[in-house]
Amino acid sequence: MPPKKTAGGGGTTTGDANLKQKSPAEFFQDNKGIAGFENAGKSLYTTLREFIENALDAAEHIGVLPQVDVLVEEVTLTQYETMIGLDAHVRKDDTLYDDFETEKAKAKRLEKEAKVEMQQEKGGAKGKKGGGRGGNASNAKGEEKKSYFKITVKDNGKGMEHNDIPNMLGRVLSGTKYGVRQTRGKFGLGSKMALIWSKQTTGLPIRVRSAQPGQNFVSEYVLDIDIEKNAPNVHKEEKKPNTTKWHGAELSVTIEGNWTSHRQYVLAYLRQLAIVTPYAALGFRYISSHAAGSAAARNQDIQLHFARRAEVMPPLPRATKYHPSAAKENQLLVKELLSNTREKTLSGFFNKEFTCINREHANRLARELGGGFSASMHPKNVSDKQGARIQQLLASARFSDPSGECLSPAGEYNLRLGVMKELGPDWIASYASPALACGGHPLIVEACVSLGGRDVKPGFNVFRFANRIPLLFEGGADVATRCVQRLNWTTYKIDKNNDKIGVFVSIVSTKIPFKGTSKEYIGDENAEIAEAVDKAIKQCASQLRGKIVRAQALKDRRARKKALTKYVPDCCNAIFAMLASAADADTLPNERAESYDEKEMLWPVDVEWEKEATQKARTREITAEILQKRLEECVEKIDNEEALEFSMQQNKDGLKQDVFLNPFSSLAHEYEPELRPGNSGIAFRLLKKARLIA
Asked: What pLDDT was estimated at residue 693?
């Protein structure tokens, strides 16, 4: 097409030749670090994480206890070449390749390695470096060979509708998790990025098997993504009979990865995931590329099973409306809601499009807007200037915090159970904050602090979760770590250097305020979140302080009882010797004391009691054994009275200690009035609703 002429006819307009457009898939291919695919090791970790979290979401969505099986198989170069249809190539000219090493360079390298080995032997090194590398100079340069892995994740979730599978996995930014709702993912990006990474590094498609509950066939797809068009490219589509009535999804993808550098992160992720989701059964297996049955293969292969420890899942998160304070963060929000609302009046708009605004409050807001506004005004008639006034009012007015019923936190019960299952601590305390509004989104902070346990190093061990996802990277800048560092642990009788302290912070929200593009940590700049996290950790530390004080009091009590009991036999023998002497005498000790010169210094004696005791000693009603038993009872009584008095001083509510039971619903427990039977010192609060889990 010829270029268009200008209106004056004096030239042409061809536009800027450098002006181009990119599809979303192209953009994320060029900016892989945004989605956590910046290198081979991180890409392997992120692929596993995205597939596992999608599997958990799929099972939770239909109320099924998740069963997720993960298989990572190392693929050799020969296997990879076979998979892509290439025959093994025999080199004809070695000098063409980057790993070629001349004899002179090889001799120089071996000489250098020999010197290093000798220095290590002289220094008492236990291990030795390997010998020659067979002329492979690329290793001498510090370069690494590419490694390939086949990742397969299978779940028992809801599966995917047959015709939706291509778009759900092969079109970037397509997904089912948009809206104001708590989700593990948000943009429909993770699994698609795994396909982009697979296509870029191996060129191999993803293989998908899926079946929905009650479906009589299994959908099978082989597909990849057309990066330029941001569209799925289906290689194979098939429906097979579902004879086993299986439902769920099974995804298998082959990518370039680095297991050595990120092995510890994968295993730590699985362990922390088992903590925050104790109701899920997780299976993991890693198979190395060594010859089957060899000693090297047995040493490198890994097989783990994280058993299910709870039978009740958190409630499903629900979609909700924006909190009015969201207008402070997003000035376009009011305009967008006004254009999309179905309400016919301004008061109805306030009441239905936002949380925490009832009818009466909505009318008050409409009156506060001033001239030009009325409660019956149609939202479509609001001008841009009036919309700015509404935004200004919502940003400055005071509103109550959201209820948090739309969120799905792990729950104190599950969080404590997960920590006890994986770490087995000596002590544990937990706390869940009430919901608060953060940037117009409801947010809940849960925390656990434990002391002692398996595989816990002395000092702080901070475990961070966001929407029940473990966060492993950039922990030093996270709000949880900063709050832990600021807290004066000595106040709570905890030694921050020597005690094994586990701090678990879980934040759930309809929008997690991550810092940076990697979504790996939550910044400390938000004062509301920092205050909520700090309060949650302090509440846990305060509970532990009470337990530590009670434990120390019990220890002191046992030591005091041991010291008193130690002298009981000697005291019994001495007392019984005096009674026996008095019983053998003709007169009572009181009568014999009348002849003492300093009798005024003697304490007064109950004569009747003296006669009774002396008579019982003569008739053997009082013996050394009886005296010892009575003294031991007296020690026990004094000890109990002192312990009760100490506990009452330490705890204004008496001997109360919370015992956590599984809730009947997502709401807080509802209790009957407190009961205090007799003088037992025990207080009961019975649940109004509960159910027994077999």
From this structure: 45
CATH number at residue 350: 1.10.8
pLDDT tens-digit readout, 55-83:
999 999 999 999 999 999 999 888 888 88
- The first and second tokens of residue 344, run together, are 């016919």
Give mean pLDDT, residues 678-688. Answer: 64
In this prediction, residue 599 carries a pLDDT of: 58
* Judgement on whether residues 180 and 238 belong to the same structural domain of the protein: yes
Q: Please check whether residue 354 lies inside any domain of the structure.
A: yes
Q: How far is CA 592 from CA 138, 284, 582, in A?
A: 108, 88, 10
Integer angstrom CA distances of residue 429 from 449, 501, 570, 592: 5, 12, 45, 65
- Cα 311 to Cα 660: distance, rounded to the nearest angstrom: 16
Lowest mean pLDDT across 245-254, 279-288, 358-367: 358-367
Residue 466's beta-bridge partner residues? 469, 507
How does pLDDT run across 459-515, given as a tens digit for each residue?
999 999 999 999 998 888 899 999 999 999 999 999 999 999 999 999 999 888 888
DSSP string of 522-572, one letter each residue: B-S--HHHHHHHHHHHHHHHHHHHHHHHHHHHHHHHHHHHHHHHHTHHHHH
Q: Which among 25, 22, 32, 33 has a CA at the least distance from the CA of 516?
A: 33
Range of the domain at 455: 412-549
| Alpha-carbon gap, residue 94 to 97, rounded angstroms | 6
More confident residue, 304 or 610: 304
Number of domains present in the structure of the chain: 3
64: region left, alpha or beta (phi > 0 left; psi from -120 to 50 alpha): beta
Give the pLDDT confidence of 380-429 residue by residue, as tens digits: 888 888 888 998 899 888 898 888 888 889 888 889 989 998 888 999 99
User: What are 340-367's pLDDT values in tens digits?
Assistant: 888 999 989 999 889 888 999 999 998 8
Whole-angstrom distance, CA of residue 523 vs CA of residue 80: 42
User: CA–CA separation, 455 vs 239, rounded Å?
Assistant: 47
Burial per residue of 20-54, b for 16 or more beta-carbon CB atoms within 10 angstroms, e otherwise: eeebbbbebbeebebbbbeebbbbbbbbbbbbbbb
**Where are the strands (E) in 56-184, listed by range?**
67-75, 147-154
Alpha-carbon distance values, 675 to 105, 462, 627, 672 (Å): 86, 39, 39, 9
φ, ψ for residue 562 (rounded to 5)? -65, -40
Report pLDDT for 641: 67
Q: What would the pLDDT profile of 611-653 be if each residue is shown by its tens digit?
A: 888 888 888 888 888 888 888 888 777 767 666 665 555 554 4
**What is residue 563's predicted lDDT score, i.e. its pLDDT?**
80
Same domain, 206 and 273: yes
CA distance linking residue 670 with residue 53, whole number of Å: 33
Determine the Cα angle at 683 with ends 677 and 684, to 5°. Answer: 95
Is residue 579 assigned to a domain?
A: no
- Ordered DSSP codes for 310-345: -S-PPPPP---PBPTTHHHH-TTHHHHHHHH---SS
Q: Which 8-state DSSP code applies to residue 2?
A: P
One domain, residues 451 and 380? no
664 inside domain? no
Question: Which residue carries 């398996």 as its tokens?
Answer: 454
Find the DSSP H helices in 464-515: 479-486
Inter-residue contact 287 to 301 (CB < 8 Å): yes
Q: Contact at 8 Å (CB) between 453 and 497?
A: no
